[in-house]
Write a structure and sequence with these properties.
Strands 2-3-1-4-5 form a five-stranded parallel beta sheet, with helices on both faces. The chain is an alpha/beta fold.
Length: 189
């Protein structure tokens, strides 16, 4: 997908939003902007936004990092799948998922069946810079973040590429990325 600027007016945005009849689920690596762009996208569409990780933390009364530390990744992924299934079933407008959610066969299939999956993609330099801003990424705690993110991108690309829509975020403002997502969904529909 190209990084062409979005040129949608309010009427076009509203027309596209009316055509979207299921949740838009943002997938991609940590730091790609799923939560921030998701909020902008939901506002443009006049729909609600929910971050799956926030919902998981609320349900567990623990942070994602604490769940990983105390119970391990497999336990976290099972809970993540159940929460995402509930959020999709509740028909939220835009849902941001954690970076590994779409790699689970079961979670990926439920998203592909009942939502519109949008793969937000960015280059490694951008991801390293963005993830360095927060110290709450369990998978980046032990090792070189650039190497870890590069490996994750290589491992997870095969899963992310199954999303119905693919948008490269680049360094564009989040509002512009949200507009490009709408244009890409419109073309896909």
């Amino acid at each position: 997908m190209t990084l062409a600027p979005a040129n949608l007016d309010d009427a076009q945005i509203a027309a596209i939003a009316r055509r979207i009849d299921r949740p838009v689920v943002l997938v991609g690596l940590m730091g790609v902007g799923k939560s921030t762009v998701g909020r902008k996208l939901a506002a443009l569409m006049g729909r609600d936004f929910v971050d799956a990780d926030d919902s998981i933390e609320e349900a567990a009364q623990l942070s994602v990092a604490e769940i990983f530390e105390q119970f391990g990744e497999a336990y976290f992924r099972d809970g993540e799948r159940r929460v995402i299934a509930r959020l999709v079933e509740e028909r939220h407008g835009v849902i941001a998922t954690g970076g590994g959610a779409f790699c689970s066969d079961e979670t990926r299939q439920l998203i592909l069946d009942d939502a519109i999956a949008v793969w937000l993609d960015a280059d490694i330099d951008t991801l390293v810079e963005r993830t360095a801003r927060k110290d709450n990424r369990p998978l980046l705690k032990n090792g070189n973040p650039r190497e870890i993110l590069t490996n994750l991108k290589d491992q997870r690309g095969q899963y992310y590429s199954q999303a119905q829509v693919h948008v490269v975020t680049g360094d564009a403002p989040h509002a512009e990325t949200a507009m490009r997502i709408l244009e890409a969904i419109d073309r896909w529909l």
